[in-house]
Amino acid sequence: MTPILFFTLLAVPQTRVSTSEELRQATQIAKPGAIILLEPGQYRGGVHLQNLHGAPGKPIVIRAANPENPPQFRGGGLYGSAVIDVQTVVTYVTLENIQVEDAHDNGLNVDDGGTIETPSHHITLRNIRVANLPKGNHDGIKLSGIEDFRVENCTIERWGGSAIDMVGCHRGVITEGTFSEGGDSGVQCKGGTSQIKITNSLFENPGERAINIGGSTGVPFFRPPLQKMPAAAKYEAKDILVEGNTFTGATSPFAFVGVDGARVRYNTVYHPQKWVVRVLQETTLPGFVPCRNGVFEKNLIVFQSQNWSAGGFNIGPNTNPQSFRFSQNLWYCEDRPERSQPTPPTEEQKPLIGLDPKLRDPKNGDFTVLPNSPAKDCGAHALKPELAH
Fold first, then answer.
1. 13 domain-assigned
2. How many whole angstroms separate alpha carbon 290 and alpha carbon 285?
3. Is there a domain that residue 42 lies in?
4. What is the count of structural domains for the chain?
5. What is the pLDDT averaged over residues 100-129?
6. With the C-alpha atoms ordered 238, 243, 246, 251, is the resulting torsion angle positive or negative?
7. How confident is the model at residue 77 (pLDDT cuts 50, 70, 90)?
8. Span 219-278, pLDDT tens digits
9. Does residue 12 or residue 319 have the better pLDDT?
10. pLDDT per residue as tens digits for the range 163-208
């Protein structure tokens, strides 16, 4: 007799909620592998979610019941309270297909509860839209003390501080994002942040600094704590990779600020408003390295002469610009091609200067190039999968 095998499929536990209070209650009892489905509708902001712990292969997932009609979280608590505030150490958690609007402070906050040395980890934010934050230091997504995370296909519109602000975060990827009409910066990496990749995203008029690699952080907020960094090699940011992105507007698309190593490559920059690169040092406490070891290569830059200052570079005091390397970028002054020459702090290797990159239709958002373009090997369109890091 042939044995008959019976298989039992264990259903993934799912809970449907339709109010902020129901969401909070559901998260209090959520176990690894739980799925919390948010019904369409408006949810009161100021939601605090705590002690969420999934497991490898079994994250706790909070997502829209209907991705075509996502829940809308509006408003928030008093100053200091995000619309959605994921507090304390959380692990293996996914939030997806959620809209956040009209915050009083930050839009979405995920942190380590201020523990500093016990990070939250394995966090995924996917298809999140955050819009309409107040002016001033109010961030779309605030991440503090997070490791091994992904921010995928998120849209941030009209913020005051940073679209995404990372403080002491490590081993993260920000990809396929759209960041438009910003305030101070688009994406910021500071407070000891390291091993971050920012890729395949669109920055449209993102504010002063589209990518702020580094910054200025109060001593108590560094992760790792400053006493655990090398005595003479402390940094705001380290090992940051920015590739395959497109930038329109911004006072300066790229700012290296207190960095100890970052690579910016295969990006397309269209109509920056003043500079392309800034090299700055805002944290000058003992033991901090001068901003150093930046690499800027195979980027495509199209600018206009009336919005171009100091040859596209702003070099501040207490930095080490001679440690920066520039290579194979294309520089094109659209209205005065003869003024396409940039002035990087070190001699660029094999630059392409004054050559029309032949963009297909930049006025309508198509920044790819025609087949006969001299920029076929630089810019965001040139980052092929086999070249991506």
1. no
2. 10
3. no
4. 1
5. 95
6. positive
7. low
8. 999 999 999 999 999 999 999 999 999 999 999 999 999 999 999 999 999 999 999 999
9. 319
10. 999 999 999 999 999 999 999 999 999 999 999 999 999 999 999 9
Q: What is the DSSP-derived secondary structure letter of residue 58? A: B
Q: State how far the Cα of 149 lies from the Cα of 136, in Å rounded to an integer.
A: 26
Q: What is the DSSP letter of 22?
A: H
User: 257 pairs with which residues across the strands?
Assistant: 214, 280
Q: How far apart are CA 253 and CA 198, in angstroms?
A: 13
Q: Do the beta carbons of residue 38 and residue 63 sit within 8 Å?
A: yes
Phi first, then psi: what are they for 342, rounded to 5°? -85, 175
Q: Which residues constitute the domain of residue 266? A: 161-382
- 293: helix, strand or coil: strand
Q: What's the longest Cα–Cα distance across the chain?
A: 87
Question: What confidence score (pLDDT) does residue 81 get?
Answer: 65
The answer on pLDDT for 78 being more than 70 is no
Look at residue 5 in the predicted model and tell me its pLDDT: 40
b/e sequence 255-264, b meaning 16+ C-beta within 10 Å: bbbbbbbbbb
3-state helix vs strand vs coil in the chain, percent to 5: 10, 45, 45
Residues listed for the chain: 389
pLDDT of residue 3: 41
Give CA angle at 112 (109, 113), nearest 5°.
85
364: which 2 tokens? Answer: 């309508």
pLDDT in tens, 24-65: 999 999 999 999 999 999 999 989 999 999 999 999 999 999
Short-list 230, 253, 232, 255, CA closest to 324: 255
Q: Euclidean distance between the first and final Cα of the chain, in Å?
A: 56
Neighbours of 50 (CB within 10 A): 14
Specify the amino acid at residue 195: Q
pLDDT of residue 79: 52
Tokens linked to 365:
């958002």
Strands 162-167 and 292-297: unpaired
Does some domain include residue 231?
yes
Single-letter code of the amino acid located at 183: G
Within a domain: 215: yes
Bridge partners (DSSP) listed for residue 124: 94, 150
Number of Cβ within a 10 Å radius of residue 268: 29
Q: What percent of the chain has pLDDT over 70?
A: 96
